[in-house]
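Hey team,

Filing this mostly as a record. A colleague (T.K.) asked me to run one chain through the structure pipeline before their review meeting, and I want the input and output archived in the tracker in case anyone asks later how it was produced. No errors, nothing strange. Just documentation.

Input sequence:
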Amino acid sequence: MYQQTSQSTDRTSAPFGHLAWQILIPIAIALTLALFVLTFCCYLQIKENLTTQELQNLENYVELNRDRENTPFNEIQEHQQLLRDDILHDLQTSVPDSKIEERFNNSFTIASDGAWRNRPGSFNTQEHASLFIPVGSKPDIFLKRRLLAAVNKCETYGSTSGFYSINSYFMTPQKAWVIFWPIQPDYFSILPANYDLTKESYYTMATPEKDPNRETVWSDVYLDPYSNLWKCSAVTPVYDQNQYIGSIGTDILVKELSSHIEYDKLPGTYTFVVRKDGNLISHETYNNQILQSKDRFTVADTHDPELMDFFQIAKRAIENETIVDSSDHAYHLGIAPLRGPDWMMITVYPHATIERAAFRSARMIMILGLVILFLVLAFLYYITWNKVEKPLDIMTRATGHVAEGDLNVRLDSSHRNELGEVAHSFNIMVAKLAERQASLQASMVERESAERKILEAQRLESLAILAGGVAHDFSNLLTGILGNIAVVQSDTAHNPLLRDVIETIDHCARRAAELCKQMLAYSGKGLFQITGLQINELIEDTSELLRVSVNMDAKLVFKLGTDLPPILADATQVRQVLMNLVLNSSEAIGKQEGTITITTEKFHLRQENLQECIYWPEVKSGDYVMLEVQDTGRGMTPEILSKIFDPFFSTKFTGRGLGLAAVLGIVRSHKGAIQVRSKPDCGSTMRILFPASTRPAREKVAGKHTSALHKMTGLALIVDDEVAVREVAIRMMQIIGFKTISAVDGRDALEKFELHSDELKFVLMDLTMPHVDGLTAFAEMNRTRPDIPVLIMSGYNEKDVGSRSESGLAGFVQKPFDLQTLHVKVQAILTS
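Output structure:
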C-alpha cells in the first residue's frame, strides 16, 4: 500500500506495541478522563442540588428561629408596656393616704440594718413581690403609693413575663426597688443596706438623659454579683403626667438562651448571637470568655478574623438578606435579627458539610464507572486484536511517518473495500495537513507583522503625548519671550546695537515657536480650521511654490484624478503635509536627476489592507481621497523606515527631524492613514489617505482688508497661572491702551470679576489652570455678564476650547503670540 518503502517490524514480541494496545490505551485514558469529568460534573450537580436543598433548609430554619426567638422578646416588651399602663392606672385611683400608710406598714418594715424590706411572716416567696429601700432613704406618701402599685402589678404579671424572662421589677429615682423573682426569693435579703441601684447601667440607660425617646431599651450582658447570674435586662421608663417616676425591668438568663440555641440547631452548623455594636452575647466557643469578662466582650476581643468577617457581613446584609456567603466563600451565613434587643442570631453553615456529602455520592459513581470501563475495555481489546490490528498494520506505519512530519506519504487507495476508502481518506487528510501547515506558517508571518505594527503605533502615540506636553510648556515660555520683545522694541529706536540684539532674540524665539507648532502638529494639537476642501484645488494653488522649492534637477509631475469627493480638513495643515513630503522627496533625489510624482485619486481602503497603514489600529476601512508623493531618490533601509516618523529623528546633518513627525500628527488628527513603501536605490512612495466627505468644498473668497490698529480704553482682566505669561500679557494689554488687573487662576479670576464686574471691558484668560480652568471660569462670568468679551489663550489648538458658537467665547489666540497678533485679535472682537 505504500508508495515509498519502509522495513516492517516484528511487534509480536512486545505486547504493548500491538495496535490493540495503541488504540485501547488512549481510549482507556480518554474514557477514564471522561469518567473523571463525568464524576466531577455529577459531584458539582449533586453539590448544587444539596446546596439548594440545604440553603432552603437553612433559610426555613433561620426564618423559624427568627420568628420563634423574636416572640419572647416581643412578649417581654408588651408585658412591660401592660405593666406600666396598669401601674399608672392604679396611681390615678383615689385611695386615702391613711389606707396607703396602713397597707405599706403592714407589708414592709425597717430591718435591723436600717433598710426597708418585707415584713417577716407576711411574705410568701412564690406569690409576693419583694421591696428594698436603702438606709437613709425616707419614702414619702407618693413613693409609697407608687411602690404599692408596683408590688400589686408585679405579682399579677410577674409569672407570665416571657419564655426567657425570670422576673419583673420596678425601680425609682429614690433608690427604691420592687421585684417579683420566685426562683430567687432572698435576693433583697443579701443586698447591702446602702445599695444604690441608680448607679447601675441597667437603671441609668432608661433615664430621661439616656432614653429621651421613652422606649424599651436593652442592656449589655452583665454578671449580677449578688445572684451570680449572667443576665441581660430590658427596661421601660414610666412617666406620670410627663414626670419620670421610675422604670419597669425584666431580666433574661444568658445561659438559658445559649443552651437553647446550642441545643436547637441544624446538623453541621453552629449559631452565635451578637449585638449590632459587636458585643458578643452567646457563642459556643467563647461562652466562657463572655462569662469571665468583667466588661463587655466584643467580637474584636476574640481576635478571630473569621468571626469578625462573619460579623461585618451580617451587619451589611441584615436589612435585606437572610442567607449570605462569607468573604472566602467557605461558609453560608443565616442571619436572623432580633428586633427588641437589637441582636443578630447568625447561623454558620460550612460549605464543607455539603461538599463531603457530594463527594461520597460522586465516589460511588466513580467506582461503578471504573468497573464498567474495565469490562468495556476488555471487550474492545478482543475485537481490535482479532478484527482490526493486522489489516491496519501498514496504515499504522504510514501514520508514524506522518507523525514524524513526513507529509509526502501516500497510501494505495485502489482497493474496492473499506480499507481502500480509509486509504483514500488518509491521503486527503495528509494533503489537507500539508495545506494547513503552509497556511499556518503564512498566518504566523502575518501575525508577527501585525504585532510589530501595533507596537510601533503605541510607541508613536507615547511620543506624540510627550511632544504635545513639551510644546505646550514651551509655548508658555515663548509667549513671555515674544511678548517682552514686543514691549521693549519700541524703546530701542535710538540704540541700533540693542535693536539688533532684540531682533536676533525675536528671530530665534519665532523659530522656536515654529518648532513648537510642528511638535503640536505631531501630537495632533496643532491649530485647525476644518472646512470642506477639494484637494486638487489646493495642489494647483501650491504648485508654483512646490516647483521653486524642489531641486533644479528634480522634475515635478502632477497626476490629479477627476471627480474626487471633498475632504474635511484644514487647508494650511494639508498644504504643510504636501510641502513636507515634496521637500523630503527632493532631498532624497539630491543633486541627481529625478522625478517627483504627485498623484490624487479616489481610494477604497479594504479591511485586509489596514495593516499596511502606519498607526493602523486607529484607521477604519471605507472611502478615502489619496494623495501620493512618489520619488526616484535613494530610498530607505528598513531600519531607517521604522524611525522616519519619530520626532527629532533625521538623516540630514541640518535636519530637525520634525517634518514627517508633523505629517503623522496632522494625518492622525484628520482621522487619515499613511502608507509608506521604500527600498534602497528604488525610491520611496508616501501615500496619504484622507476620509472622503459629503460636505461640499468651501468656495474661495477674496481676503478681507485688515483695518488699522488703534488704541483701546477701559479695564481688562488678565488671567494666567504662569507668572511670565501673565506679566507679559499685562504689559501688552497696557500698550494696547487698557488698564489692567490680574488673577493667578480661575478661582482668583472669579473673585476679581465679581469685584470689578461693572467696570470690566475685556477678559484675556488662559485655558488650562489649577483649581478652576478657563472654560469653567468663563461660564460663571457669562452668567453674570453675558456681554463681556472673553478671549481664551492656550498652547493647544482651538478644538480643545470647543465651538465658540456654542460656548459664547469671543475668540481664541494660540500661544505663543506677539503684540501685533494680540492687538489684531482684541480689536477684531471689540469692533465686531
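Quick notes for T.K.: The longest strand covers residues 229-240. The chain has 20 helices and 26 strands.
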